[in-house]
Request: fold
Amino acid sequence: MNRQFGVINEDEGASGRVLRVSVFSGDNNFRTSSLEALEPFYLTTVFDNANGALEEMTASPPSAVAIDMELPPAGGADLIRKFRANAALSHVPILAISDSKIKESSEEAQQTPADYQHERPLLKSKFLEIISIMANKSVERSWDQLPPLQATVLKETVNVFKKSFSGVRDGRPLPVANIEKSCEPMIEAITNNQFGDILRGVRDHDDYTYVHSLRVSIHLSLLGHAMGIRGDDLKTLAVGGLVHDIGKAMVPLNILNKPGKLSEEEWLKMKAHVLHSKKIIERTPSINHGVKIIALQHHEKLNGVGYPYGIKGKKLNDLARMATIVDIYGALTDRRAYKPAFSIEKAMPIMLDMKDELDQGMVKLFRDLLMEAAKLEE
Ligand SMILES: [Fe+2]
Ligand SMILES: [Fe+2]
Reply:
C-alpha cells in the first residue's frame, strides 16, 4: 500500500540510497576517491578492470557509469563500445575520464561516444555534480514509460522547477505564468485520482528539493480537493507546494544536500530559506497571496514554536495550517540518502502526537484521505 504514495519500505535498509553508480578505473587512488565522493549518495561499485563487469551489470543496470579511458585490459573506449552494444545497458549515461580533453571531432570520440567527458584531475564535488545530472537523466528517461498525463506532469514540473531555481539564483523573479501552467496537468491528475504513478516516478529523482516540492504540491492539492477547494484556489495550492521551499535555492549546496545531520550553524542557514523565499516573492509582484502564505508560513506551528515568525493560533489561517502538516508529512516520508522513507503508519502517529502544534482535525482528514487513496490500489 505504500506504493501509492511513492514511499519505500523501511526494510530496504538504514540508508535510503537506491540509485546505482559504477566506476571503472585501473587507478587505485581514483577508485578510492570515487568511493569517498559517491558512496554517501549512491550504491556505488568500483571495478579495477573491465573483465566480467558487463555480465554483472546487465541484471540490474546502473543509473550512471564513469569509465577511465586508461582502463585495463583494453582501454575505456573498448568498454564503452561494449556498453553501447548491450541491449540492457546501451542507454546508461556514461562519463569518460581521460588525461586530456577528448576532442569531439576525434576518431575516439566519434567511435565511442560517451555522454559526458572530463579530464583529470576531477574534483570530488564536480564528479558528484556530473553523476547527479547523469542519474537524473536516467530517471527522467524512465518517465517516457508512463501514461502521457503522468509523464507530462513530471517533465513539465521538473523543467519549471529547475528554471525557477537557477533563475532566482541569478536574482530573477519567479516565472509565475510558467509555474501555473505546469500545475494544470497535475491538478487534472489529482482530480482524476491518477497521481500514484507521479509519486512513484519522482521517488528516485536525485534532486531532493524538487522531489520534496512536488510531493508537497500533490499532497497539498489532494488535501485541498478533499476540503472542497476547486478552480484557481486549487491551483494556488499546487503552485504554493511547488515553490514553497524556493528560498532553498539560496542555501549553500553542501548544506542543502548534506548526507546527514546538520550542525547548529548549518541548521540556521537552512532555516533562513524562508527569509530567502520572502525576498524572492517580493521581487515577484504577480505572485498570488495564497502562494505567499504557503511559502512564508509552512514552518509555523499553532502554539507559536515554529519559524521564522512564531505566529500563533487563530493568526494561522487554513492555508498555513495545511502547508505545515503536508510539509512535515513530506519530510517524514521523503527518502534521503542517509535515511529511508517513513511509512504512512510510522509518520501519522508522530503527527497525531503533535497536538499543540498541528491542527488535529486537518491531520486526521489528511490521514483518512491517504489511507483511503491507498486502499484503492490494494
Ligand atoms: Fe521549508
Ligand atoms: Fe518543505
Strands lie at 20-24, 43-47, 64-68, 94-98, 116-119. The first strand starts at residue 20 and ends at 24. The domain at 146-377 is CATH 1.10.3210.10 (Hypothetical protein af1432). The radius of gyration is 22 Å.
